[in-house]
Amino acid sequence: MRSAFRNGHRPMDSFDIFPEGLRSNLFSAAGAQWHRVRQIMTPTFSSGKLKMMDSHINTCSAHLIDNMKKAINKGERIDVKKVYGGFTMDAIARTAFGIEINSQEDLNHPFVKDASLLLSFVSSNPWYRVLLTAVPFLMTVVKFLVTYVFKQQGWTPFSETVLRIIQQRKSEGRCAQKHTDFLQMILDYEDNEKPENKRLKSLSDAEVLGQAVVIFLGGYETTSTTLQFLSYNLALHPDGDVTYEGVAKLKYLDCAINETLRMYPAVNIVNRLASETVTIKGVTIPKGAGVLIPIVNVLNDPEYFPEPDKFIPERFSEENKGSRNPMAFLSFGYGPRLCIGMRLALLEIKIAMVHVLRAVKFIKTDDLQGKIGILPGTLVSTADRPVLLKAELRD
Ligand code: HEM
Fold first, then answer.
1. Does the annotation list 339 as a binding residue?
2. What single DSSP character describes residue 253?
3. Which residue's CA is minimally distant from atom 41 of ligand 1?
4. Is the complex ipTM higher than 0.95?
5. Alpha helix ranges (H) inside 237-307
6. Is the model's pLDDT at 135 over the cut of 70?
7. pLDDT tens readout for residues 30-45
8. Residues 6+ away with beta carbon under 8 Å from 375
9. What structural domains and CATH numbers belong to the chain?
10. Distance between CA atoms of 288 and 309, rounded to whole angstroms?
């Protein structure tokens, strides 16, 4: 399996339906182009650079707690989609673009409006991914539909905002270095490039825009969904060791996060292109075939995770992890296409959760069980069926 899909190619590589200028982002780029952009982007998400994000994430967590406390003080339950959606939006706006918002308080902020338009455009079009993996030759038809019929209007305001920030940062010259966000880090690559590295390091404005969109799209729903499921799991299992004292040690929290990502992976399926013919458990996949890998099935396979329906954070203790095939935990993918934002996501989730558990305690209620599903694209909460968690303030 590893060798057959090793090159990071996937059917998405040929899904060239992104608007002009956004085609070189990590989701849409193919082969050598993907390799080059990924090489440039990887250091941006290294642990050294992520240290600069702590204070941004702490500030957003403080807003999150304020918003939770307001609900509790009014005697309301916590609408997890609303509070964590707001937190993740704020965290991306700050860490990626240096925009300081409290999106729950300020739904009319231009960034929130542009971002919401982009999200509704993207979530209304997931069908083409699955369709094109199964029938790649439909590409031309889909490209025509997306370009001329749907007109991709959802992209425009968000792209214009990002391009405006790029221009502003460029006009600030060296003064722009005071900004500590991903966009600035990507732009600094251009400034710091050595002539011999020019081909590798310089990103065009369109490419920088592409990466900005990827950071937003890759990081918003995934992180928010995981926080929603994690809180749900903690409410449902109050007997676990997730007290503030336990969390302070962070080990148990790590395990609870991984177990939540296993039970409810934010990405259910990934796609690849078989780079050679391979036979797996008696099924032969010919070279060049598009393959959908159902992450969610592997993560719920009793062969790797006994009693998969049960929330058992201890599965992720060092000892238990060591005795399992490392490829079984696929929540962030595996190999060259491993989620580039994994460290950032885990940092956001951990910082937010330490703040949350310091301030509030989730309470198990009878209506909680059976609230959620893990069908592809199903979130913990939907607009017509919000998950409302009962919580009380800690002293
Ligand atoms: C809990 C949160 C997250 C989960 C569960 C998640 C999951 C995944 C998975 C499974 C993949 C692999 C797709 C594949 O193999 O084809 C992936 C790729 C990716 N993720 Fe994430 N992700 C999360 C957060 C983020 C964040 C915060 C960012 C923002 C930077 C991000 C950006 C990306 C990008 C750019 C890729 C494509 C990488 C490539 O193709 O080289 N993700 N993610």
1. yes
2. H
3. 337
4. yes
5. 244-249, 251-263, 295-299
6. no
7. 677 778 888 888 888 8
8. 268
9. 5-393 (1.10.630.10)
10. 35
- For residue 74, what pLDDT is reported? 96
In whole angstroms, give the CA distance from residue 143 to residue 337.
Answer: 24
Residue 10 alpha carbon, nearest atom of ligand 1: 16
Q: Are 5 and 274 in contact (CB under 8 A)?
A: yes
Ligand 1 atom at shortest distance from the alpha carbon of 226: 1
244 CA to centre of ligand 1 in angstroms = 29
Residue in 109, 98, 115, 102 with CA at minimum distance from that of residue 64: 102
Structure tokens at 107: 């739904």
Question: What is the Cα 163 distance to its own chain's centre?
Answer: 22
Ligand 1-lining residues (CB < 6 angstroms): 10, 26-27, 38, 214-215, 218-219, 222-223, 226, 261, 265-267, 270, 331-333, 337, 339-341, 344-345
Q: Model confidence over 237-294: pLDDT tens digits?
A: 876 655 555 555 678 889 999 999 999 888 888 877 788 898 888 989 888 887 888 8
Side chain identity at 231, as an amino acid letter? Answer: S
Residue whose tokens read 């990405």:
267
pTM across the whole model: 0.87
d(CA 215, ligand 1 centre) in Å: 9
- Closest ligand 1 atom to residue 344 Cα is 27
